[in-house]
Structures
1.
Amino acid sequence: MADLKPLASASSAAPKKPARRRWPVRLASWAWVGFGLLVIFFLVYPFLVSTNFMFLFGKSPSLADLENPKVEQASELYTSDGVLIGKYFRENRSPVALSQMSPLLIKALIATEDVRYYEHAGIDLTAVLGGVLSSLRGEKRGGSTITQQLAKNLYKIRRQQSRGALGYIPVVSTIVAKTKEWLTAVELERRYTKQEILRMYFNTVEYGSSAFGIKVAAKTFFNTSPDSLRPEQAAMLVGVLNNPTAYNPRFHPVAALRRRNVVLDRMGQAGVLPPAEIAALKATPIVLDYHVEPHIDGPDTYFRSAISQFVDAWCDSTGHDMYRDGLKIYLTIDSRMQAHAEEALHERMKSLQRQFDNFWRNKDKNPWVDEEGNEIPDFIATQMRRTESYKSLANRYRNQPQRLDSALNAKRPMKVFTWKHDDNDTTLVMSPLDSLAYYKHFLRSGMMCMDPFTGQIKAWVGGLDYRFFKYDHVKQGRRQAGSTFKPFVYLTALDNGYSPCDRIRDQRVTINYVENGQPMEWKPDNVTREYTGINMTLRHAMARSVNSVTAQLTEKVGWENVAKYAHKVGITSPLLAVPSIGLGSGGDVSVYEMVDAYSTFLNTGFRSEPRLVTRIEDRNGNVIKQFDPVQKRAISAETAWLMTYMLRGGMEEPGGTSQALWDYELWKNDNQIGGKTGTTSNYSDGWYMGMTKDLMTGVWVGGEDRSIHFTGSQQGEGGRTALPIFGKFMEKIYKDKELGYTPGQFPKPSVKIGKKYNCVSESEPRRRRAEAVDTIAADNLLEQMNNGGGLPDSL
């Protein structure tokens, strides 16, 4: 049988067309599809970026951001008389109008950064293409317009908070950021004029050395204003913009000069200046008048810390930022009164320090002494171990005592405080131990002046010089008040039935009390350990600061009540209710508290919260917070007026402790002054609280440590250390007619005074009288304390 073979189908037998003939058609189709997708992508892509689609692209500026761009701006401090005394900032910036800038500055910027600035709408396509071609050739050439640079500066579009998921992919992140710049630049051009964009640009860019904005830059590098910039100065500042670090003229003068000359060349090419002038300017060196403002700019003052704490707390509660929002903070401080206070304190302390140095030089010993007047051994070594610098060195040289000792005794040049030069500083070669001993020799001081009726603090001097002594002796420092605490005893008495004319005999007394269940007794001494036996009026006893009368009165009214009344009128520190509280041994207090408390007497019994800030404005001058006086009734108006009358006794009663004020030019127009001196045990602290019809002032003087002091009343009591500062200060206040403070009498009582008070024991002409010694002498109560009693060691 023959083999049978299947027949091939007709289709299989037909020849096949080559498949390659179809590829051109397919490629064309794919090209058109790709082109369509690309078009769609470029149409949709900007929308995706601007809306942060699926959080891929990060946040872009909103419409509100574009309409009202927020730029970090320094907050400014102004005194009550309108003087700018400081700033708070992260980026130091003070915007100015375009009309306040040199025209050459504007022309230099356009000639250098964006020659077609007035022709494009935010993006210069010619510059972009040129930049791409330059990059392909390996050259670095920017294509960003001024508007693009402004967009980047205003909205920080390359920063972390502007990143989306794609922002962490190399190259892609750059493309996204650049897209945002373009989109934002176009929107800026739509909403602002070319002039407005230039103004914002100059006020936002960084110029190096922590200078943001043209105003700060002109001041930082040339100590001038933007409208006074010379051509070469304008060219240098425009040149710096390219790289504020690399072209900083302070640190890279050669590079800065080269870059400045590039800018001058471009100014010449643009026809801004003639070629001859350009050549001459290029030949001139860069001459700087360089001054960098710190992040807290302004004079070093002790009240800045209190202001910062107050304003920071307010900002936290309101969502503002003191370092960014361009707030204008208006203070109660009067710059003229502050200057007078600093001058008065410095004049007196310079003289007093000379006396102090001579006093201890004659004794051939250092001023740190014990209760018997003997120099304390190893005092400096002991104090050094308490310092942060010692702790740091001890940690570094742990178990290496020889190296630690070597570091503590290693000498090097140090800038230190001195009274011998007008600028109060000098350079000495010292070791850390030498430096500590050097500073321990200085007496310190604190002073505050307040308007008692409004609570406005007019002057605040916390120490000798903030550059060298950071510790604030107005609010931070607390010391025993000595006899300046006695008025609170008399206040308690007057508010509980006593009158200024009531009498208590000046005599030796014994006060019995119970402490921790144990019977105790206290026999207070007068300073002189003598007793007149006179049946004194309360006014006369307070004026002469008689310890025996004060102690008896304290027992009559109750030492617990004395502490209560002190707290009512303004003392906020803890107080011990002890028999000797009236002599100042109930606890440590600050100058700030004492001025607050005494002010209650002048303010008809209302206690005013001390204030440093009157109002806060936003960057546009709109008041966003007004701080009005905060007052509350503490004591009756009658008691308050009687206390003012009692305090006048220091000048008006024979032998009053304020008599030294007669030596000052304070007695025109029948002027009246009230006040109280105070001195603590061993003359460690000297106080004076002085009041006039308008002002309440407190002054403290003492050593950094209680063991550093004079050893006699002729040098160390408050009437001789602190009172002269008040006297000098008030002289300056009265002589400064612009301030408007005049001598005169205290206000008449605003209510009927039902208690007898006009009881001056004798009438004498107004002249200097011998004042009483005013201090707290050691007595048998102190001896009891040292033998195990419960009160503080130092009265």
Note: The first strand starts at residue 75 and ends at 78.
2.
Amino acid sequence: MAKTLREDPADAETLSHRLLVRAGYVRRSSAGVWAWLPLGKRVLDNVSRVVREEMDAIGAQEVLLPALLPKEPYEVSGRWSEYGDLLFRLKDRKGADYLLGPTHEEIFTLVVKDQCTSYKDLPVMLYQIQTKYRDEARPRSGVLRGREFQMKDSYSFDVSEEGLEESYRLHREAYVRIFERLGLDHRIVSAVSGAMGGSASEEFLAPAEAGEDTFVDCPSCDYAANTEAVTFALAPAPVSAEHPALEEVDTPDTPTIETLAAHLGVPASATLKNLLVKVDGEITAVGVPGDREVDLGKLGEHLAPAVVELVTAEDFEGRPDLVRGYVGPQGLEKVRYLADPRVAPGTSWVTGANRADTHARNVVCGRDFEVDRYLDVVVVEPGDPCPSCGAGLKLDRAIEIGHIFQLGRKYADAFGLDVLGREGKPVRVTMGSYGIGVSRAVAALAEQTADERGLCWPAAVAPADVHVVAAGKAVPLALAEEAATALAAAGLRVLLDDRPGLSPGVKLTDAELIGVPWILVAGRRSADGVVELQDRASGTREELPLTEALSRLTP
């Protein structure tokens, strides 16, 4: 069953969304929820098989934990509230609270606590390939960003930091092999741990225009990082007594950096932009140079698990010290002040004077105001200096296909995961967490390998090795069936298109859309025992006797 479509779905935004639907791999069930049809299920299973083989090869053991989970473990870890609206919450008939699992750190920790009591039981690595659930506010891009998705999550449990580093290394190397076998072009980039916690974090990204992640890549060295993890080593400017005194100036109708810079005749980089946000409900100011923007995602990752949101008009009520459009760090009351490292001690700025239509110049950091905490929070721009070598960075889009963390003892502490150590005393276990988006990998492959004719799967994940097309009746059909039988007997996976009533052109178009590595066509020269063999990736076609074609395909 593979019903193809001639037109793109109306709501399709990405190449993978359009082609997976048109080629009959998936169908939308509801917003963010997809049915995997026979062809799609084969590709999904092939990705899972490669993942399984490489996980087994490093000694990880597969389990299958429930997707329907009790509330209590997530309350213990704090993620029942931290996940907010992303959690699917439900009650059973007795009123008990449950959730559909978005990820399983808590449950794996409890499994190991139940099964492992001594250091002799460790190290251990467990994994599962399972359906996960997140209530995305705006599910989009087909299977790339859904509410229900397939994921491989694995967890390592060790009694020492050295053991954790070894488990992390094993997973990292396994991931490289997995993505190479799948045929995915990928980058390993530094990332922030955020709400996951831990001391080390790396992402595996598949470069693609449809990607929702932006990463930096240095053309001069091997530095690569998620934009949220980029840190610039900026030398602080020395505090100087040579700065003129702070001076307030009338600046009517200049609530934006652009209007202010034009009014005073200064570059935007000389101004100090102060963005007001709420961090777990507490108003906080974030200062950055006026020619830069605050990366709210980056800020949120730095402050996780705290919830970061923009202030609203209601937040200004009863706060005369907060004047919209004219906020300055000097004289702020009961407001925590965060700043980008560029706002270094000794630097002088033009900024708001905390009075309407008024700004202040010669506002010096360290003299007129203090920074409570420095964070790299600006949006990274092309040409920013590489933290490693100083060359100008370039930015690219990518799909996140994997993420690995050295979690440490966050969850072991929450659940009291101890084992008896070599000295006969309890030892707190340290953990790693490692995820691969299995269904996302399918979409990423579609994005990277498709061409103007349709999907073009690498052999490792394709739903079949050969797509046999009967381009005609009687003799072509008989030859196509003969070819399909011989190929299957040789151990190849075969897709046979013997649909009646369709023109050869429609069948050939569908074959190219479906994207199996080889297309074998029994058509106009079938009476002579001649078929056409097409390499889907290169597009090369050749007419040759069926026996020779079979020999080519079954070395």
Note: The radius of gyration is 29 Å.
